[in-house]
C-alpha cells in the first residue's frame, strides 16, 4: 500500500484507455498540443485505431516508452523519500514540508504554454527543451548521489527536533519533479509529431506503460533492493551467500546509475533522433503564448467552470487523511518500507483492468452518476483502512514480522479502495471529455485536470501539517510531558520514550470523513446540475478570430 499516490495518481496519465479517448492528462498547453492532442486524440484515434500499423512507428514507440520510463524514475524516487525519512523518525510537519516536492505536476499548466511556444527552430520544437531538461536531471542525480546519505542521516536538531536538511531535501526533489513535469510536456507534444497520424493513439499507451514502469523501478524496485532484510531473506540466504548489513543497492548508487543513464541516452537522442517539423491543419486552433493564457482566463470566467473548480479543489478533503497518512502509520507500527512497496505489485493487474471495465458505465450522457455513487463507499473504505492500521500491532509476531494473511488482508482492502477510486477517476475523465470545448482543443481538458491535481496536493499538504498539532504525547516514565521538543529530549535523556496517547491519524480520519459526508450533501445537487447543463454552458463565447490558426510561433 502506497504512502501517497504517484503525482496526481487519480488524475494522472496512468490510464491509457482514458487518455486514448479524451487526453485526460496530457499537458497540452497551446499550439501543437492544444490542436493535435485535442483533435487527434479525441477524434482521430477513435476512427483510425483499427487500421493503425504500429510496426510503421515501432522505433518511435520504443523511444517514447523509454522517455516516459525516464520520467517515472525521479517521480518514483521522490515517492520513496517519505518512507525513508519516516524510518528515521520524521515528524508530520516534515512529511508535510516534503509533500511540496509533488506539487509541480499539479501546476505544470502555468509554464506549459512557455515550453510549447518558445524554442530554437534549428534545434527542434521539443528537443530545444527536452535535451537540456534531461541533462539537468542526470546532473542533479549524479551530484546528489555524493551527498544524499549525509543529508538523510544527519541527526535531528537538539533544540527543534527537526531534521536539519528537510527544506534542502524538499527543494532538491521539488526541482527534480519540476524538471520531470517539464519533460512530460515536451514528450507529450513530441509524441504527436513523432508518430504517424494513424498511430497517434499509441502516445497515451506509451505514456501509461512507460511512466508506470519508471515509477515502479524508482519506487518499488529501489525500496526492495535497497532493503537489507529483503536482500538477505530472498536473495542471499537462498543462494547461500554471506548475509550483509546492506541491501543489494544503495541510494547513492541508484542515483549515480540513473544519472548516467539520463546523460548517455540524452546524448544519443540529441545526436541521432531528428525532430519532424510540425504542421497544423488550418481548421485546428493554434494559439500563441499570450493567446493561450487569455483563453485559460476566459474559460475560468465561465460560471460552470467556476462551480466545477470548487468541486475539484475540495472533493479530496474527505479522503486526504487516509490517502496521505495510512502508509506512514503502518511503518510506525512495524511494517517495513520495502514490504509496503511490494504490496503494490498484486494490484497492478487490477489497476490495468479496472478502467476498461468501468468505461462502459461512463460513456453515456450522465458519466458523473458513478462518481457520486462511489463517493460514500470510498469514505467507508477509508474507515476500514484506519481500523486495519489500528489492529496492525496485534498481528505482529515475536520477531516483529507479520503473517502472510495480514498482508493478504491489506491487499484485499486496498484493492476495494482502488475500485471506488477508479470509479471516480474514470467517470471524472469521461465528464471532462464530454464538456471540453473543442474550439480550444486539449487546453480545456488540461485546465480541468490541473484543478483536480491541485485539489489533491493542497489537501495532502494541509493534512500532514495539521497532524503535528493534533498529536499529544507523554513520556513512558510516568508524569513526564512531551509537548515541546525540549521535553521530548529530556524524556529521552532520562531513558524514556515519548509515546502518543492521542494519535493524530485517527482524529484526522474522523474529521475528514465527517467533512466528506457534509461535502457530499452540500455538493450533490451541484454535481447533478453541472452534469445536466447544456454543452453551450461550457463553451467560450466571443470573437471567433481568437480561434483562427496563428503562424507567429513558427
TrEMBL record:
SUPFAM superfamilies named in the record: MFS general substrate transporter
Entry's transmembrane regions: 61-85, 97-120, 129-148, 168-187, 199-225, 245-272, 340-358, 379-398, 404-425, 504-522
Gene Ontology cellular-component terms listed: membrane
Membrane topology type:
Multi-pass membrane protein
The record's section on InterPro entries has: AcetylCoA_trans_1-like, AmpG_permease/AT-1, MFS_trans_sf
Q: Which UniProt keywords apply?
A: Membrane, Transmembrane, Transmembrane helix
According to its UniProt record, where is this protein mainly located?
membrane
Q: Where in the cell is it found?
A: Membrane
**GO molecular function: any one?**
acetyl-CoA transmembrane transporter activity
Asked if Ribonucleoprotein is a keyword of the record, the answer is: no
Tell me, which GO biological process terms does this entry list? acetyl-CoA transmembrane transport
Record keyword Cell inner membrane present: no
In this chain, the stretch annotated as Disordered covers: 1-42
Q: What's this protein's name? A: Acetyl-coenzyme A transporter 1
Organism equals Adineta ricciae (Rotifer)
Amino acid at each position: 500500500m502506497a504512502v501517497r499516490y504517484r503525482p496526481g495518481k487519480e488524475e494522472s496519465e496512468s490510464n491509457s484507455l482514458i487518455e486514448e479517448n479524451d487526453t485526460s492528462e496530457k499537458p497540452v498547453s497551446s499550439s501543437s498540443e492544444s490542436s493535435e492532442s485535442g483533435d487527434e486524440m479525441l477524434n482521430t484515434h477513435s476512427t483510425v485505431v483499427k487500421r493503425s500499423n504500429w510496426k510503421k512507428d515501432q522505433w518511435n514507440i520504443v523511444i517514447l516508452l523509454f522517455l516516459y520510463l525516464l520520467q517515472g524514475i525521479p517521480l518514483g524516487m521522490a515517492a520513496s523519500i517519505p518512507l525513508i525519512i519516516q524510518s528515521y523518525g520524521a515528524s508530520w510537519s516534515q512529511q508535510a514540508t516534503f509533500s511540496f516536492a509533488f506539487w509541480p505536476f499539479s501546476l505544470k499548466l502555468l509554464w506549459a504554454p512557455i515550453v510549447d511556444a518558445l524554442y530554437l527552430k534549428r534545434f527542434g520544437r521539443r528537443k530545444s527543451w527536452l535535451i537540456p531538461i534531461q541533462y539537468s536531471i542526470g546532473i542533479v542525480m549524479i551530484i546528489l548521489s555524493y551527498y544524499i546519505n549525509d543529508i538523510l542521516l544527519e541527526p535531528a536538531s537538539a533544540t527543534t527536533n527537526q531534521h536539519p536538511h528537510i527544506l534542502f531535501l524538499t527543494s532538491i526533489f521539488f526541482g527534480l519533479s519540476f524538471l520531470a513535469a517539464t519533460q512530460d510536456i515536451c514528450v507529450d507534444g513530441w509524441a504527436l509529431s513523432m508518430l504517424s497520424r494513424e498511430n497517434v493513439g499509441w502516445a497515451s499507451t506509451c505514456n501509461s506503460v512507460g511512466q508506470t514502469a519508471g515509477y515502479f523501478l524508482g519506487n518499488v524496485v529501489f525500496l526492495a533492493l535497497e532493503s537489507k532484510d529483503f536482500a538477505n531473506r530472498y536473495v542471499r540466504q537462498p543462494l547461500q551467500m554471506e548475509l550483509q548489513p546492506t541491501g543489494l543497492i544503495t541510494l547513492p548508487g541508484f542515483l549515480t546509475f540513473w544519472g548516467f543513464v539520463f546523460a548517455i541516452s540524452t546524448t544519443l537522442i540529441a545526436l541521432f533522433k531528428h525532430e519532424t517539423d510540425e504542421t497544423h491543419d488550418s481548421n485546428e486552433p493554434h494559439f500563441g503564448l499570450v493567446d493561450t493564457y487569455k483563453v485559460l482566463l476566459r474559460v475560468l470566467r465561465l460560471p460552470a467552470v467556476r462551480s466545477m473548480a470548487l468541486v475539484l479543489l475540495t472533493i479530496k478533503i474527505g479522503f486526504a487523511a487516509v490517502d496521505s497518512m495510512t502508509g506512514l502509520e503502518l511503518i510506525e507500527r512495524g511494517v517495513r518500507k520495502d514490504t509496503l512497496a511490494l504490496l503494490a505489485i498484486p494490484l497492478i493487474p487490477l489497476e490495468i483492468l479496472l478502467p476498461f471495465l468501468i468505461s462502459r458505465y461512463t460513456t453515456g450522457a450522465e458519466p458523473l452518476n458513478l462518481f457520486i455513487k462511489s463517493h460514500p463507499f470510498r469514505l467507508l473504505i477509508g474507515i476500514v483502512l484506519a481500523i486495519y492500521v489500528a489492529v496492525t500491532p496485534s498481528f505482529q509476531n515475536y520477531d516483529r514480522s507479520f503473517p502472510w494473511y495480514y498482508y493478504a488482508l491489506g491487499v484485499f482492502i486496498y484493492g476495494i479502495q482502488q475500485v471506488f477510486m477508479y470509479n471516480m477517476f474514470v467517470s471524472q475523465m469521461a465528464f471532462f471529455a464530454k464538456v471540453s470545448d473543442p474550439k480550444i482543443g486539449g487546453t480545456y481538458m488540461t485546465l480541468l485536470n490541473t484543478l483536480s491535481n491541485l485539489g489533491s496536493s493542497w489537501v495532502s499538504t494541509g493534512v500532514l501539517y495539521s497532524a503535528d498539532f493534533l498529536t499529544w504525547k507523554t513520556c513512558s516514565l510516568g508524569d513526564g510531558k512531551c509537548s515541546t521538543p525540549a521535553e521530548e529530549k529530556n524524556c529521552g535523556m532520562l531513558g524514556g520514550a515519548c509515546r502518543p496517547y492521542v494519535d493524530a491519524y485517527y482524529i484526522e480520519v474522523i474529521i475528514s470523513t465527517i467533512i466528506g459526508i457534509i461535502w457530499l450533501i452540500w455538493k450533490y445537487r451541484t454535481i447533478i446540475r453541472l452534469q445536466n447543463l447544456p454543452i453551450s454552458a461550457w463553451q467560450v463565447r466571443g470573437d471567433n478570430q481568437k480561434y483562427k490558426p496563428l503562424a507567429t510561433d513558427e
